[in-house]
Amino acid sequence: MGSFEQTSSREALLNELRGQEFTVRPLQSFFKHLPKGVNEELPQLEKDVDEFLEKLFPPGQRLEAMKKLKGAYFGATWYPYASLETLRASTFVAIWLFAWDDEVDSTEFSNLVNSYEAANAFRNKTVRHIHRCLYPKTVTIEAETITNPILAAFKDIADAITSALTQSQIDNLYHEFVFWIEMTDLEHRFHLGRELPSVEEYQEIRMGSGAVGVTLALIEINDILSLKKEIAQGQVVTLVPLIFKRVGSAQMAVDTALDSVSASLKSFELQSQKLLEEHSSDPITQGKLQKYILGCKYFITGNLSWSLASGRYKIGAQTAEGAIIVRL
């Protein structure tokens, strides 16, 4: 076992990474066969998103940072053919997730990031509030006062998204929310502790909000593109630093992560084709699968387009067609 693998100190790892330079080879080569698009309702969605953000945050640095997130573009590229109502509800969910995550995880804006106990109380309160909002007619959890504007905003979001869902879909949605919050708990423990997770442990944690192979491809691309931001904030519990800890080279770590993206995409294509072939005798089911698979493909290309365009990751690139040089 090499010295990089033996080193568990996050401070030592941060010092090794700062000042490193690496090249992200052209990402378009991975995704050129996948469809992409932008919803025509983007101009209206931009207005709606600004109004939503101004309800969540008072004027100031955090509001401006969330506007630079380009949440409307996120939604418009992930859901290019959704109706305005569906587009708005889906985009608000995504923005809410970003805002909630910053509430417990951001070194810039969170007063919980350095206190596991306080953050854990907030997570538990979130789970209870989500349950009340998703099951308003069968609430068994005692009501409590919600003063945090991010938590309070979930009520309207829940009303919008559950109106079109079956009970089974609502149940699945609730369990996904709970699982996601549980994984943020584990991630927070690693952020605050001295020991760092292995690459495999980290990948398992990051699968918490999706639990499918294609989500891994999305998460890994985000971890590559968000690395500059994370290192600037002193955070190393992300994919590339953990691979770097193992191999000792930033360029090799990024290349390894990109190879994993490529493998995930190939697996996604193979499994998609297998599913379609298994249901070739059932046109209705096959049609639903084709629609779902197409949606996943738009998620992949939409995520990439948004990650480059958003000011969140400080990449300084607007296109995936050329190589991206990053200096940490």
Top keywords for this entry?
16 helices, globular, 328 residues, 2% strand, disordered N terminus, 67% helix, mainly alpha
In DSSP terms (H or I, runs of 4 or more residues), the helix count works out at 16
Share of helix, binned: 55-70%
Order of strands side by side in the largest beta sheet? 1-2
Task: Describe the oligomeric state of these chains in a short phrase.
Answer: single chain
Question: What this model shows, in words?
Answer:
- The protein has 328 residues and is mainly alpha-helical.
- Helix content is 67%, strand content 2%.
- The protein is built from 16 helices and two strands.
- Strands 1-2 form a two-stranded antiparallel ribbon.
- α14 packs across α15.
- The longest helix is centred in the last third of the chain and has 29 residues.
- The chain is globular and about 55 Å long.
- It starts with a helix and ends with a strand.
- 32% of the residues are buried.
